[in-house]
Write a structure and sequence with these properties.
The chain has a domain at 1-32 and 36-250. It contains 20 helices and no strands. It has 502 residues and is mainly α. The chain starts with a helix and ends with a helix.
Length: 502
């Protein structure tokens, strides 16, 4: 598989998806601001995604893709898929019943600081969104099969479709003054994805009827998968517990804080998911099955690329957090208080953006080499730090304490992950040191870049950022070869595409 080709495909798809995602969040901010409606939807979505992502999220993908590829090599992929599919369906039905009949209990646990009206609306949304769980699981399972085969197009289709459908239901909820339609948007998006993906399976003949006929004689396949999955499952359990703590703490900070943190998180995660997630997904497939000595140098080089990408973004988002929030959200129901809360939250997140992007890549490296127990231990340490920050520092620091806790956890995990891989970190540390000095210089330059018009401010600062860091990478002997290699690979891909089209 061509790693660069997969990255470009995912980057383009994620770019469109993130553009739609921004539009979605701008509309939510304009129509509902940081009201109890947005708080309720965020908490309901969290309650639904906590167990479903535990089953079908990054941990499942990280275990499923290498295991599926191993079974393909042994010509047992159909039986493996069948057993996993029926187990997932059974668990999803249980979750649906649990949320439909017991949603109020989850609301009470996740949002003790909510008003009675907010709690009631959150429970209503939970009852509706519960019916999307099975569609969510089935659509993700199909995507992971395609990913294991080196095809990443459906991943981009998934995120684009989700955003389009949600925007449609968001508009309907506002126009008809019926906020409960937000919940139907979740169900409709994943139901539509299942239809699209099943059509793709049929068109490409990616699966046969044998995939729905599990062979119980091959139960050892499931046991092997369980051994790979268990450390990741526990790791995700830690992560979900951390999210629960964050939601509880946020709900106790006052109305709108849950929504403000989520608005900031979406903006903060955009560059990470736009660049870090495609890199992680492709790396999982690329490194699976490769000898460690063959991959070690590529991993070291990729870490440098990640730092070169994310350090400037981290600096820019930290310095321009308020301007970004004003430009993107400050209209309609999103007033001055909303801007203040959200920009403060974004600042805390942005400090650790570079670490979060690096973590997304390193996590997949550990998955590819079945070092999930080490990932579990390191992740557990990071989550513990995050929880302690939320419990003890948030009462003193306020909303920024919630997001600074996340950044501190990301930094610690990256340090530990790199250390355990026993990489040659001399070049990584040298580049990191040079980027730190460049950061100090850019902070000094940016102190003179302030304009009354927020769009002019952001555009000028963005152009200066690109020019400044481009010159830094061209001048420094440690980063110049990486810049040359990366630009050469992209240009070669473009030339190849142009020749094919001609």
């Amino acid at each position: 598989m061509n790693m660069i080709r997969g990255l470009i495909l995912l980057f383009l798809g994620n770019g469109v998806s993130k553009g739609l995602g921004f539009l979605r969040e701008v509309l939510v901010a304009y129509w509902f601001g940081t009201s109890f409606i947005t708080d309720a939807y965020r908490v309901a979505q969290t309650a639904i995604l906590l167990p479903t992502q535990l089953l079908m999220g990054n941990a499942f993908q990280a275990a499923f893709v290498p295991s599926y590829k191993k079974n393909v090599a042994e010509q047992r992929e159909a039986q493996f898929f069948g057993m996993v599919f029926y187990i997932i369906c059974f668990l999803c039905v249980l979750l649906t019943l649990m949320f439909f009949f017991g949603g109020g209990l989850f609301v009470q646990i996740l949002s003790p600081g909510f008003s009675g009206e907010a709690k009631s609306f959150t429970a209503e949304l939970l009852g509706i969104m519960a019916f999307g769980i099975l569609f969510y699981a089935c659509s993700n399972l199909i995507v992971y099969v395609f990913n294991a085969n080196g095809e990443f197009g459906l991943s981009s289709v998934a995120s684009i479709t989700q955003n389009v459908v949600f925007i449609l239901f968001l508009a309907l909820a506002y126009w008809f003054e019926e906020p409960a339609l937000l919940g139907y948007g979740f169900v409709g998006a994943f139901a539509l994805l299942c239809v699209i993906f099943l059509w793709a399976v049929k068109k490409r003949n990616a699966m046969t009827s044998a995939f729905l006929r599990p062979d119980l004689k091959q139960i050892n396949q499931l046991r092997e998968f369980g051994k790979v999955m268990m450390p990741l499952f526990i790791y995700m359990l830690f992560m979900q517990a951390n999210i629960v703590v964050e939601r509880i703490v946020s709900s106790q900070q006052g109305e709108g804080v849950v929504a403000a943190v989520d608005y900031a998180r979406i903006l903060f995660e955009t560059p990470a998911y736009l660049l870090g997630m495609p890199l992680g997904m492709v790396s999982l497939t690329y490194f699976s099955g490769k000898a460690w000595e063959e991959a070690k140098e590529r991993i070291e080089q990729t870490i440098v690329y990640v730092l070169m990408l994310f350090v400037p973004m981290s600096v820019f988002f930290t310095l321009k957090s308020e301007e970004l929030i004003v430009a993107l959200y400050a209209r309609g129901e999103f007033g001055a208080d909303s801007v203040a809360m959200t920009s403060t939250a974004l600042m805390g997140f942005s400090v650790g953006l570079w670490a979060f992007g690096t973590f997304m890549f390193l996590q997949r490296v550990y998955n590819a080499y079945f070092r999930n127990k080490e990932l579990l231990v390191i992740g557990g340490i990071g989550v513990l730090l995050n929880v302690l920050f939320n419990l003890f520092l948030v009462p003193k620091l306020g909303i920024i304490g919630i997001t600074l806790a996340f950044s501190a956890s990301s930094v610690l995990q990256v340090i530990l992950l790199v250390y355990r891989l026993k990489l040659d970190v001399k070049q990584i540390l040298l580049v990191a040191g040079e980027l730190l000095l460049a950061t100090v210089a850019f902070v000094f330059i940016s102190s003179y870049l302030h304009f009354t018009n927020v769009w002019v401010d952001l555009i000028v600062a963005g152009l200066v950022l690109v020019v400044f860091w481009g010159l830094v990478y061209l001048v420094l002997p440690t980063t110049r070869p990486f810049l040359k290699t990366a630009s050469g690979a992209v240009l070669a891909m473009v030339r190849k595409k142009l020749k094919r089209s001609a």
